[in-house]
Design a protein that fits this description.
Layout (H helix, E strand, L loop, with lengths): L3 H30 L1 H9 L2 H20 L6 H23 L1 E7 L5 E6 L4 E17 L6 E10 L6 E3 L5 E3 L2 E8 L5 E7 L3 H21 L4 H8 L30 H8 L2 E4 L2 E4 H13 L9 H10 L1 H4 L5 E2 L3 H7 L5 E2 L12 H8 L7 H18 L7 E4 L5 E4 L12 H19 L3 H19 L6 H13 L3 H20 L6 H29 L7 H19 L4 H18 L18 H33 L4 H37 L7 H19 L6 H26 L7
Antiparallel strand pairs: 1-2, 1-8, 2-3, 3-4, 4-5, 6-7, 7-8, 9-10, 11-12, 13-14
């Protein structure tokens, strides 16, 4: 008769694999048929629930068969899984949710339930006031604040984004509003499921802490073993990419000093008052994929389009992606000029193609990007982008206008009206006369005009200078490529010389990592100052933070394992290169009100810690596989690398679990639902399950190479979670 423990292990593994495949399929299904359909047909389907029950039952049987070897933290982890599953079932079967529509001063005693029509409340809710709070000097919403009165309470309840109303186990969340002052609240009534779920969350995190502190745990044993500095071999083959750009005289533009003067003025861009320099850098990047062009600064590129349009419309500076788009424009290479967009009738060929395409045409995305590049120039030339004139309306509110906008005439003098309307004509006249000294004076005087009319809503001079400095030091692709090449060279030198590499290579690696930590910290702090929030909300920001985590972990772990020192350079370089996919410097902007939560910041930071450690585990496994391939005596280094990788996987899994739990708590506070089966949530859970399998089934003891291959392939789940969901699957987390 076969070993029942082995049979249960196989059953648990098969059931878990089936759940992973089913959830992955659910994210694709959701992309096609929508989230509600995916929840009904996949995630909440009775067959899926049965599959979860069988998986947990098989794991529970394994726990009781090995109860003599189970330690306290093992029992806590098993109990946490049961509590989490029970909480999910209670929420699904006993929880209620819906929407509550409130008009000013009209009491309401029922809400529209998600399941059973209208549901009565045991009290009435009345909207007293509602206000959209905006960032100073802009129309960008900073928060949505409502004061509601509940009949059971004497004092009004304030409800805003990330600030819920809570009464008698009913929770109210800000959802939407109308211009007439009406609001829509999400209602959640789940007195049992949330409490049970949070007990499970707390037990799970506490079990990891107990495990880390237990001297007899496997993690502590691995940690002691890996204190011996491991030796290793890593052979990486790569091709180098050379990027050259032909130099020519180029189109005419303003001198660099004069263009810099133009960059010193203020502009309202993306609902934020910033230097024209910031706008120019983003404008240039969107056109050509870089913040400079052919030796011209971003300010010179902007000035060229403004004052030397006939020259620049012939310049092949538009970076065009997609063969279909290039064929439509009749291009031989990857660059196009503005003239290339136009047919013989002066019509935008890309826009015409886009209008003729069906919404599900796979070519739409590439044509849409090219059309946005063309429309950038159209918007610039018709003035809609140049909101550089702060003016007060009759109520005294400052708004920003372009020279082509309809101005608040009743509050302007004739001289002010003519100044706004004729300003760029005057600048153009000075350009034609080549009077750069006078043009510098005009730019300086306009800055004085802006300060006079905008008053206190302008950023301080210190903040203005900070942003200009930030614009100068932000990284580009060349920096990332240099770090990657240095990492490869240091590995190659170590392989060609002694096994651990020479002392000077290690010292150079330490110096680069120290510089990277300081540099990334400066970037992080500067972006924090400029944005007014901790910059951990967008893809670019989280990638920079991940690069910072990698650099810190590399520096701290360099003495323990050379792979963490030299491999850190490689990982950091690739992370920075991936960050450049978001743009060399995505413009600083105001954060959405829903993202202004400390829980979100902690959630992102913890997840980034996990990803950094998993990246190191990946490099370790690559090194082990290459040792196995190219070395005769491979057994000892492969086993040492396995121990190092396992040592990283335990805290990685803890950080993954903590990140998911904190994210669930944030979602519960913000949207009234701690789990919505959003694609990124699902893939985060899949990633945690995938990395938990080798730690709990323990098949790495007899098959270390299979373990390393598994870790190598497992990293695909991280890539899908971070990049794949954003690019392909979408969802509520697509901004991250």
């Amino acid at each position: 008769m076969k070993n029942p423990v082995k049979i249960l292990k196989i059953a648990a593994s098969a059931l878990t694999a089936a759940l992973v495949v089913l959830m992955a399929f659910g994210t694709v299904y959701e992309k096609t048929y929508g989230s509600e359909s995916a929840v009904t047909a996949i995630y909440h389907h009775p067959a899926t629930v049965i599959l979860w029950v069988l998986a947990i039952a098989s794991a529970t049987a394994l726990v009781f068969m090995g109860r003599r070897q189970m330690r306290l933290w093992g029992w806590m982890q098993w109990a946490s899984v049961l509590f989490i599953f029970a909480g999910a079932l209670l929420t699904n079967f006993t929880g209620e949710s819906g929407t509550l529509r409130l008009r000013p001063h009209e009491p309401v005693a029922q809400y529209a339930g998600d399941r059973d029509g209208h549901t009565s409340l045991p009290f009435t809710v009345t909207l007293d006031t509602f206000e959209v709070q905006t960032y100073p000097g802009t129309m960008a919403p900073m928060d949505f604040v409502a004061q509601v009165r509940i009949s059971d309470l004497s004092d009004p309840v304030v409800i805003s984004m990330n600030n819920i109303g809570n009464h008698r186990n009913y929770r109210f969340y800000m959802s939407d509003y109308d211009k007439d002052g009406s609001i829509e609240l999400l209602v959640s009534h789940d007195p049992w499921g949330i409490a049970v779920m949070y007990i499970g969350f707390a037990l799970l995190l506490l079990s990891f802490i107990v495990m880390f502190c237990d001297p007899s745990s496997r993690f502590r044993a691995l940690w002691r073993n890996t204190a011996v500095k491991a030796s290793m071999l890593l052979i990486l083959l790569c091709g180098t990419v050379s990027m050259t750009q032909a130099k020519n005289d180029g189109p005419r533009t303003l001198p660099k000093e004069t263009a810099a003067k133009m960059g010193d003025m203020y502009i309202l861009y993306q609902d934020r008052i910033c230097p024209v320099q910031s706008f120019a850098r983003d404008f240039t990047y969107k056109l050509c994929g870089s913040t400079s062009y052919n030796g011209c600064t971003a300010e010179q590129v902007l000035a060229g389009w403004l004052f030397y349009f006939d020259d620049w419309k012939k310049e092949p500076m538009f970076k065009i992606k997609g063969d279909d788009v290039r064929n439509t424009l009749g291009l031989d290479g990857k660059r196009a000029s503005l003239d290339d967009f136009l047919n013989s009738y002066g019509e935008n060929m890309i826009g015409m193609m886009l209008d003729s395409m069906k919404m599900n045409d796979p070519r739409r995305s590439q044509f849409s990007v090219a059309n946005k590049q063309y429309m950038q120039i159209v918007s610039l030339m018709n003035g809609t982008l140049l909101k550089m004139f702060p003016l007060k309306d009759e109520s005294g509110t400052v708004s920003w206008y372009s020279h082509t906008d309809k101005l608040p005439i009743g509050n302007l003098t004739d001289d002010e009206y003519l100044y706004v309307k004729k300003y760029f004509s005057l600048c153009q006249e000075l350009v034609v006369q080549n009077d750069m000294d006078m043009l510098n004076t005009v730019f300086e005087k306009h800055r004085v005009f802006q300060k006079k009319h905008a008053g206190d809503i302008l950023p301080s001079d210190a903040k203005f200078r900070t942003e200009k400095f930030y614009n100068i030091i932000t990284p580009g692709r060349s920096m990332a490529i240099c770090i990657i090449l240095l990492g490869l060279i240091f590995f190659g030198y170590a392989v060609a010389g002694v096994e651990r590499g020479s002392v000077w290579v290690r010292r150079v690696s330490y110096c680069i990592l120290l510089f990277a930590i300081v540099y990334l910290l400066v970037l992080f702090v500067l972006r924090w100052i400029l944005s007014g929030y901790i910059p951990l909300t967008g893809g670019y920001e989280t990638m920079l933070f991940l690069a910072l985590c990698v650099a810190i972990f590399s520096l701290l772990g360099g003495r323990r394992s050379p792979i963490m020192l030299h491999g850190g350079l490689l990982i950091m370089g690739f992370v920075l290169l991936a960050a450049m996919m978001e743009g060399v410097r995505p413009p600083v902007s105001h954060t959405m009100p829903v993202l202004k939560s400390p829980l979100l910041l902690i959630h992102v930071a913890v997840i980034m810690f996990a990803y950094a450690l998993l990246a190191f585990a990946l490099v370790n496994s690559v090194a082990a596989l290459l040792n196995r391939t190219f070395r005769k005596e491979w057994q000892e280094p492969v086993l040492r690398l396995r121990d190092v990788t396992l040592t990283m996987l335990y805290p990685s899994l803890f950080f993954l679990a903590a990140g998911i739990i904190i994210g669930s708590a944030w979602a519960n506070i913000t949207w009234g639902n701690y789990w919505s089966w959003d694609p990124k949530e699902v893939w985060a859970l899949i990633t945690a399950i995938i990395y938990a399998i080798p730690l709990y089934l323990r098949w790495d003891d007899k098959r270390p190479m299979l373990f390393h291959l598994y870790v190598l392939l497992a990293f695909l789940s991280v890539l899908i979670t971070y990049f794949g969901v954003n690019m392909l699957l979408g969802g509520m987390h697509s901004y991250a």
